[in-house]
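User: Could you check the structure of this?
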Amino acid sequence: MKALRIVTKIFVYIAMAASLFMLGLVFLDVILRIFFRAPIVGATELSQMAMVCILPAMGGVILENRNTKVDVLVEKFPPKLALGVDVVTLVISIAYCALLGWQTIESSIFSKEFKVVYSLLRVPEWPFLVLLGCAFFVAAIATFVFMINRIRTRNQPAEEHMPELDILEEADDK
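Assistant: Sure, the predicted structure tokens are below.
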């Protein structure tokens, strides 16, 4: 589990750097376009590449229980039913993330074989797809860990069940 924590932390740092890059790029592009009539060539493609680099933070968000949760209906359920709904939703999420990861890796293989590039900057597309595919797999694993912890702490309200990642702490201690 320590490896999962390290990988998700690396992905979060990549996402933070990509966010700052994209913010600075768009700001600079607007300034240059408005005041100097000289937009940054390829700014849109660079923003697309940066946006792909933001998505890998999903695993860290899941493990830290910082994802947005709308549970207006589920919070009114009895605890066992709420747990059941959470588990079913999490299993679907695991399957969905794994499927997206697999399909994205398949797309990256196609992209590499046929030398698909971003049209203006001619940067290969496949490395970004590999990063995205790996991020989906990490998100699936993180969701699985989250689900196990949710089941282990089934008597607590859903919003309090993973405050300190105790399943990861226990695994790190062993």
